[in-house]
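Sharing a chain and its predicted structure for anyone who wants a worked example. Both blocks are below, sequence first, tokens second.
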Amino acid sequence: MLDELHRYLVNEFRGGRNVVIIIDEAQNMPVDTLENLRMLSNIETSKEKLIQIVFSAQPEFEKTLNLHELKQLKQRVSVKAVISPLDPASGVAYIRSRLTKAAVVDSVPFTAAALKDIVRIAQGIPRIINILCDNCLINAYGCGEKVVSAAMVRSVAREFGIKGCQSFGLAIAAAVVALFAVCGLSFYQFPHSIEPSRFSTAPVTKVVVAEKPVRPPVPQAYIERVVQRGDTLAKLVTQVYGRADKGTMLLVKKANPSITDENVIVEGGRLRFPKVVGP
């Protein structure tokens, strides 16, 4: 297998192409696997490296590299870059950019205060920003709201146990992702913050609404269905509502607390499908 890999790498090199292995979440890799990757880095010609390895990891990966058994691997790290959390302006620009990519150009489904709270609570970390935005939109749909308020953001954050910091400076001081390049990868400089202009955003209409507390939807009536052989929750939801998106599935699951796994429903059981209007 190594001979075959070597032939492939040589052919790519002769064709003027670089072979790069990119490993995400490298902090979860066993030490033995990391050592085997170091052995791969030995594949080379008399003048050039034939393979480059890039590790993308959380900051704790540096502790792993400091282990004695990985001393040789650490010595081969030629480039290290740290990506810091987004600052408040960049975080809001990031959300607007994602909305634009999703074809949301006429209006922003978040109040200005909600956008600021999302970035603050997420401490500028894109992954947590994504989680908050996604679940806020689902919550708004379930409550019949067209715009996510700051109160709703805080409610969702509490539900997921996400605690933001009051001072954004504390977040900027924490590194989010570390990139380690092995075997002579060209140097890339990662900015500590990203200017809002770096994101391409289409013109949007500013939406200003009064903040109001998040209230649960008001059920007007229930449609009951008996689960038949071959039924799935998604199938029944589609029959009742004509769709089975995340928001609709969430409404039905809330109306039926016995459903712990949407892929498992009991034949002969009765399910309630609420007709819901906004508060």
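Comments welcome. The chain has three domains: 2-75, 88-172, 218-277.
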